[in-house]
Amino acid sequence: MTLEILYEDSQYIAINKPAGLLVHRSPIDKYETEFAVQKLRDQISQHVHPVHRLDKPTSGVLLFAKDKTSLRLIRSLFDSTSTLPGDKAIYKTYIAVVRGYSPEDLEIDHPVKVRSDGADDSSSNNGDEAKPAKTSLHQIGKVEIPHCIETYPTSRYSLVELKPVTGRRHQLRYHMKHIRHPIIGDAKYGRGRHNRYFREHFDSDRLLLAATGLEFVHPTTEEWVKINAGIGDTFTSVLYTLGLHKAYETYLKEVRQHAPR
């Protein structure tokens, strides 16, 4: 598998990480043998250092630095503790399919706990420190299908844009669970019946969450860098099946014409 390169300069390189690929070796998946770091290193014959992370089941824009000096320069952007969008020098955009009719626009302000080992986990307990976490949600489209999956005779879903203001681990997945609109395909925070329905009827066994945009001020050139990624074939197929593809296409046209939300 050749990784899709979305952006490259002398200091940084970004790929479109496939869903199911780990960024680097992890004790959580100790039997996994393929990692984005090694695959990209072998592909370009150069060592790379991940600037940030994406969960294994999440696809999309993943940025690497080509040397440790460049890594230190850009890490300050990603490590910002500010919870104010105007204070950020970096913007991330995600697309997700969630259960139910989501709010049209919502600022989710709910803390995420951080374990003593430094890993964020909203489900952890016993002395964990809660850290501020904010996410902006915008509904792109919604649909109701004539199938009873849980209590009601029909089932509702929304296509949403998510913009994390902070960068806690599992933040988007946990925030969507918190507002009772879990992401489809989320084995940890989602609803099993809906996940199974999408797997059996839509041939989708992935988390329907994709990092589609990354924008930042280049730490060396001070130019504004904008990197975009597609959502992948399976995700696209689901949107067509649900009838949400036109709403997504309209959204893409609007994004290309306007500055970050």
Tell me the layout of helices and strands:
Blueprint (H helix, E strand, L loop, with lengths): L3 E5 L3 E6 L18 H9 L4 E2 L8 E7 L2 H11 L11 E10 L5 E5 L2 E3 L14 E3 L2 E12 L9 E10 L6 H8 L13 H10 L7 E9 L6 E5 L4 H10 L2 H13 L4
Parallel strand pairs: 4-11
Antiparallel strand pairs: 1-2, 2-4, 3-4, 5-10, 5-11, 6-9, 7-8, 9-10, 11-12
- The secondary structure category is alpha+beta
Average pLDDT: 89
Shape: globular
CATH fold-level label: Pseudouridine synthase
The span between the termini is: 34 Å
* β-strand amount: 25-35%
Strand tally, please?
Answer: 12
Please tell me the CATH architecture by its name. 2-Layer Sandwich
Report the biggest beta sheet as strand number plus sense, adding barrel if it closes: 10 strands, mixed
CATH secondary-structure class? Alpha Beta
Helix content percent band: 10-25%
Q: Could you list some keywords that capture this structure?
A:
12 strands; 261 residues; tRNA processing; PsdUridine_synth_cat_dom_sf; 6 helices; tRNA pseudouridine(65) synthase activity; two-stranded antiparallel sheet; 10-stranded mixed sheet
Question: How would you characterize the overall build of this protein?
Answer:
By secondary structure, the chain is an alpha+beta fold. The chain has a single domain, classed as Pseudouridine synthase (2-Layer Sandwich), CATH 3.30.2350.10. The chain has six helices and twelve strands. Strands 1, 2, 3, 4, 5, 6, 9, 10, 11 and 12 form a ten-stranded mixed beta sheet that branches. A two-stranded antiparallel sheet has the order 7-8. Strand 3 and strand 4 (59-65) form a beta hairpin. The protein is globular. The chain starts with a strand and ends with a helix. Mean pLDDT is 89; it is low at 122-127.
